[in-house]
């Protein structure tokens, strides 16, 4: 199931991508945008476009699992797998979109193309709900219990998967470019524009949060209680309005040209290191290629002793021509940026397991709620797709408490500016996610027992584990994004923004694999698997306990990785001896992060 909560997190904590490094020489200044920064004049178009796009995207897909089960007659577990794979692909796509935007297309062109493709995807999905020939026929009347519901044909699935493919392409361009494109419209050398940029972020986050909440409540209610064509048609119309708003602002936009992708710089370090693999490490850093950068937005990184093989990519050698080939000689800054990325990867991997826990609880909460009493009073019934707003509520309410209460108290104890370190914050989230899964298992056990007795307990029983889940994501999810933004080099901020989505993608794919493995392992002669299509016949509570156990193992892995992690720019006092005692490379320079 998609996690709008995670989408919200990616906007709540993302920071603006700084200009590419290093600064271009004078002869390249002609490539810089000539148009004057319009600042707030552009914001009605950019914020309006983002608000309508978020309303459309979340409103269309928040209830997607229910749509597949009720309209396409998919089995519940099959629908969960389809959704996991779809959202996994959707969250990997921004990595490709970021590369194409930075290297070839530029942010405006990428956003324009992706927005059109997203609209076409939404229109196709809406048609699948509105045109009877594009979806399976209705199920027989309740009286005909022995007649199964019609299964979708190849045409039906073809239209459905076409719409999903278009939505993946659209998300791949919109997600990594939307916020940085807004930042491009401000001149960060101007005090007035720097203040305007802060206001931009406030309004951007506010409208994104509001759009997600409306989508998870109003849109889902329309889909469940009125009709699917209207419930899908409204978001599609809003996406059309987003497109119109975006293009109306075209005369005001600053168009920053593509400046090359960070991926090529990463590849250059590995290629140059392999080419220089037989060279001994020099006795001093003076023998390493370390030109002075005049870019005020880039923090120079001190040389480190870790991964000495990569340091060889920056060794000055007589065989290097002039000007140097970037695939044979890299700057020391490039090398240290790649080292930062390598150190972050194990921490990133641990976050995937956390999102598996959060994502599976979100997914099965929808299926659980369909078996529970969802009435609030005599006239209102909570739509299954809106149950996830409980977790969003937990996140939204807890973040101010964390910032205004927990951080100041922790700061008095630890003397740290953030109260606790970035890794400690993630670790706390991992611990809470384990308790969240245990609580969810206990609630599911009670729900199943009562359901088998013919009693549907209140959907409000799902509130405690979902609220705890929201708190876990406030710690770990927000902590991940802040960690990436602070620990990634400025030159890799686009990659940092995409990495969070890659965590969600990895969790979606692994969730699908885990579901398949559990079904196969627990199904046997004379017994049912834990994950049956009818969750009353399965044991979802056992599945939750399994994920909690995985969380414990993942927590141990995280603690080990965190104990060896070295923060970017922190003083390092080790001295590395290479070349049989020829000399030392001093690496004790201090740079504040």
Automatic annotation (TrEMBL):
Transmembrane spans: 82-100, 112-134, 155-174, 203-222, 234-254, 341-359, 380-402, 422-443, 455-475, 495-518, 542-565
UniProt entry keywords in alphabetical sequence: Membrane, Transmembrane, Transmembrane helix
Gene3D superfamilies: MFS general substrate transporter like domains
Top-level lineage group: Eukaryota
Pfam families named in the record: PTR2
Principal location: membrane
Entries under PANTHER family matching the protein: OLIGOPEPTIDE TRANSPORTER-RELATED
Family: Belongs to the major facilitator superfamily. Proton-dependent oligopeptide transporter (POT/PTR) (TC 2.A.17) family.
Name of protein: Nitrate transporter
